[in-house]
Amino acid sequence: MLKGVLNILPQVGLGMFLFEIIPIVLSSPDFYEVGNNNRRRNKAILFKKIINNKIYHVIMSIVNKSGENILMFNTMYIKKADEINHQP
Fold it and tell me: Which of 33, 56, 71, 88 is 20 to 30 A off residue 50, Cα-Cα?
């Protein structure tokens, strides 16, 4: 699934206030998937949460900094749940 993460359907634009939802998506996702390493050799994790008939997608990367693995924000987007048959 994460392989095609760049080939996504039309998205809803994000406002700055929507970034406040990131902790909710990360703390109680409806779905998550660990993907392959990206071009920087970091492992990507996709988190999805359905809220009010919208699916919030947050992609994080596991980055090794000074010998420690750190979870870093990569991107976020929203789709209407009905665009993908209500499946996270």
Answer: 71
> How many residues are recorded in the chain?
88
The verdict on domain 15-83 having CATH code 2.20.25 is yes
Nearest CA to 73 out of 37, 42, 50 is that of: 42
> CA of 5: how far to CAs of 8, 17, 35, 87, in Å?
6, 24, 10, 16
Question: pTM for this structure?
Answer: 0.72
DSSP 8-state secondary structure symbol assigned to residue 14: -
SS (H, E, C) 69-88: EEEEEEEEEEEEHHHHCCCC
